Amino acid sequence: LGTGPLAGRHVIVTSGPTHEPIDPVRYIANRSSGAQGAAIAAALRDLGARVSFVTGPATVPAPDGVTVIPVETAAQMRAAVEAALPADAAVMAAAVADWRVENGSDQKIKKTGALPVLHMAENPDILAWISRDARRPRLVVGFAAETQDVTAHATAKRARKGCDWIVANDVSPATGIMGGSHNTVTLITGTGPEDWPRMDKHAVAARLAARIAEAIA
Ligand code: C5P
């Protein structure tokens, strides 16, 4: 059994991108590396938590010492999160695809001359769902990647999603955050925004895990 302030606590962490299939060989994806989510899972583990790590196809490896639940699509991610409940906290760090292809093909689409037309459907919002579910963890933390007015947009997102905290960051290309090693975040809680200094993603994860430990220990 683990020791540390989160010993006996169960935390679900989502991480990485999702892949939404077009046909058996093609998919729609995004540029999330999964680095911040993996670092958060490791930091929670280091504080003694039992971690269910629900991860899309990330480019960084999953940490040791956590229960890895690999998924591909947003629908699979939602089902995996539901299956992992109950939990004391949930940290939704995944870059979930907003849309899936509704008219995907079971067979590879052939080049016939006519261009394929993809019809999109909206994916389930896992963060909004878990925040309002009857089995809601005591603490639900979401992320907000913004390119302008970070604090204002993230504060609105916190209310809209119904989560407790939002970890907001500026992902304008000039910041190098997406796929980079460092992150500059603002933590939005019920008492307002807190600007954290620029730190590497492991330091952001350690600081967030310590705050989570204070909140649910
Ligand atoms: O709405 P937006 O995608 O900006 O919200 C980001 C936050 O919501 C992240 O915490 C992300 O993991 C979560 N999210 C989710 N399911 C979705 C879309 C976003 O859990 N379908």
TrEMBL record:
<keyword id="KW-0288">FMN</keyword>
<comment type="pathway">
    <text>Cofactor biosynthesis; coenzyme A biosynthesis; CoA from (R)-pantothenate: step 3/5.</text>
</comment>
<dbReference type="GO" id="GO:0004633">
    <property type="term" value="F:phosphopantothenoylcysteine decarboxylase activity"/>
</dbReference>
<comment type="function">
    <text>Catalyzes two sequential steps in the biosynthesis of coenzyme A. In the first step cysteine is conjugated to 4'-phosphopantothenate to form 4-phosphopantothenoylcysteine. In the second step the latter compound is decarboxylated to form 4'-phosphopantotheine.</text>
</comment>
<feature type="binding site">
    <location>
        <position position="157"/>
    </location>
    <ligand>
        <name>CTP</name>
    </ligand>
</feature>
<keyword id="KW-0456">Lyase</keyword>
<keyword id="KW-0285">Flavoprotein</keyword>
<comment type="pathway">
    <text>Cofactor biosynthesis; coenzyme A biosynthesis; CoA from (R)-pantothenate: step 2/5.</text>
</comment>
<feature type="domain" description="DNA/pantothenate metabolism flavoprotein C-terminal">
    <location>
        <begin position="6"/>
        <end position="214"/>
    </location>
</feature>
<feature type="binding site">
    <location>
        <position position="143"/>
    </location>
    <ligand>
        <name>CTP</name>
    </ligand>
</feature>
<dbReference type="GO" id="GO:0015937">
    <property type="term" value="P:coenzyme A biosynthetic process"/>
</dbReference>
<keyword id="KW-0479">Metal-binding</keyword>
<dbReference type="GO" id="GO:0046872">
    <property type="term" value="F:metal ion binding"/>
</dbReference>
<comment type="similarity">
    <text>In the C-terminal section; belongs to the PPC synthetase family.</text>
</comment>
<dbReference type="GO" id="GO:0010181">
    <property type="term" value="F:FMN binding"/>
</dbReference>
<protein>
    <recommendedName>
        <fullName>Coenzyme A biosynthesis bifunctional protein CoaBC</fullName>
        <ecNumber>4.1.1.36</ecNumber>
        <ecNumber>6.3.2.5</ecNumber>
    </recommendedName>
</protein>
<feature type="binding site">
    <location>
        <position position="98"/>
    </location>
    <ligand>
        <name>CTP</name>
    </ligand>
</feature>
<feature type="binding site">
    <location>
        <begin position="124"/>
        <end position="127"/>
    </location>
    <ligand>
        <name>CTP</name>
    </ligand>
</feature>
<dbReference type="GO" id="GO:0004632">
    <property type="term" value="F:phosphopantothenate--cysteine ligase activity"/>
</dbReference>
<keyword id="KW-0460">Magnesium</keyword>
<dbReference type="GO" id="GO:0071513">
    <property type="term" value="C:phosphopantothenoylcysteine decarboxylase complex"/>
</dbReference>
<dbReference type="GO" id="GO:0015941">
    <property type="term" value="P:pantothenate catabolic process"/>
</dbReference>
<keyword id="KW-0511">Multifunctional enzyme</keyword>
<keyword id="KW-0436">Ligase</keyword>
<feature type="binding site">
    <location>
        <position position="161"/>
    </location>
    <ligand>
        <name>CTP</name>
    </ligand>
</feature>
<feature type="binding site">
    <location>
        <position position="108"/>
    </location>
    <ligand>
        <name>CTP</name>
    </ligand>
</feature>
<keyword id="KW-0210">Decarboxylase</keyword>
<comment type="similarity">
    <text>In the N-terminal section; belongs to the HFCD (homo-oligomeric flavin containing Cys decarboxylase) superfamily.</text>
</comment>
<comment type="function">
    <text>Catalyzes two steps in the biosynthesis of coenzyme A. In the first step cysteine is conjugated to 4'-phosphopantothenate to form 4-phosphopantothenoylcysteine, in the latter compound is decarboxylated to form 4'-phosphopantotheine.</text>
</comment>
<feature type="region of interest" description="Phosphopantothenate--cysteine ligase">
    <location>
        <begin position="11"/>
        <end position="217"/>
    </location>
</feature>
